[in-house]
Amino acid sequence: MNIALIAHDKMKQDMVNFTTAYQYVLSEHHLYATGTTGSKIRKATGMDVHLFQSGPLGGDQQIGAMIANNEMDMVIFFRDPLTAQPHEPDISALMRLCDVYHIPLATNIAASEIFIRGLENGDFQWRDIVKQKKEKEKA
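The line above is the sequence of Methylglyoxal synthase; the predicted structure tokens follow.
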């Protein structure tokens, strides 16, 4: 599965801790992240993470493009609900795309842990079915 990892500044250490704790699951998938978040994950875990621009510089939109092209299967986004974000419209657009394209979106650690448990159990196999259907429609 293709999994996007995003974290606001005050949440980056939580994301590093999360990815370190669940490295045994995440390392089985293709990981994508916004710039600084991905760099911190790489440094802490040694996992291969494709880096996009930082969120405010277009990273959220790059991930959104993958969602719109049916190339992203899950988004884990540790949002900081207590700090105003200057790029809030980009964040809202990303979340809207997840809803439009039925992409699972976790915005906190608790929901993210549920996703990880689902990955361990193979509960997201329906994404493969959706991808195959979309590919057939394109042909």
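Note on the example: Residues 31 and 86 are 25 Å apart (CA to CA). The mean pLDDT is 91.
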